[in-house]
Please model this.
Amino acid sequence: MVLNYIWIGFFLVAFVVALVKAFAFGDTEIFTALMGSTFESAKTAFELSIGLTGVLSLWLGFMKIGERGGVVAFLSRLVAPVFQKLFPDLPRNHPAGGSIFMNLSANMLGLDNAATPLGLKAMQQMQELNPQKDRATNPMIMFLALNTSGLTLIPISVMVYRAQMGAANPSDVFLPILIATYFSTLTAVVAVCLYQKINLLNRSMLLFLGGLTAIIGLLTFFFSSLPKDKVGLYSAFGANFLLLTIIVGFIVAGLRKKINVYEAFIDGAKDGFKTAVTIIPYLVAMLVAVGLFRVSGAMDVLIGGIAALFEWMGVNADFVGALPTALMKPLSGSGARGMMVDAMRTYGADSFVGRLASTIQGATDTTFYILAVYFGSIGVKHTRYAVTCGLLADLVGIVAAILVAYIFFA
Model:
């Protein structure tokens, strides 16, 4: 229901802003631009879905091998103590546990293309347990909150963009991103636990949160001790080595179980194609709304108002140049990347704004895109409090990114 009102709001706000620009300021091209945006956004949504087809087919094919080879069941048992607390409504040793674990692992390594198919598989498995097929369950909301919080231990894509934009040290945002995304994820977990009345003080949860904190600390120490030119190299090597190891491990497990590995892959790949087609209308709906909001100038009005407010309060407003990335991030991943690149192009990759925009890009994930794709893939319409928790995690992640950037780069 919340997503419904937000979606309507994008259209209404964009229309009102366009009316003001047309009749108060004589911008006769605004409605042409808005209509052009709807067609362009619909085309982009379709192309994204079709482009995702190959990746979905690939990874759901490997997931089917892992499922039949017993790897997914093994992972479910491995993470059962923690997942029983975070996902109390998910049956013990259910295959969804393994899919959730692998999706979150891929996200932590910054492997977006691998994470999405694994996440869609997890949603399909949880949907099998859902008595009300159009209403989000508690496990689904916890899972999506963890996804939208964007926990990323190795932000490969951000460092690649910084290198392309001429940053002297593309990996200088590594530690700030790590700190900001940690607070975002912690907020997501706590918020959903409060909604679902999950006890955060039990032994398993304390060990989980403590272990997560320890991992963040160890990675921070390890990468901070490396020469600056080695950070990107080591992180990319580690992430891709682990990914390929998982693929080979699935195949070996299939051989040990004496299953037909090739046929298992084909069966999973077919599911990937079906899922990609299912996503198209949901993605079109969200990207068209976001595109209208941006092209109408509503985003610029919002940013300008925020800047004026902070300047009136006497607060340092240097961060405002990075706000387009922050405001676009929950709405569109590609849009936020475009805003980040634009900030680096306008202010410089090594400027405060350029570094802050990069930190924000890695601190959270695209809440509305994830909700549209993941819920859309299984036909869930009533998202309950998923949007609220996702946006709260985004807000904390963005605020943390700004504060950390002032500490590291100001």
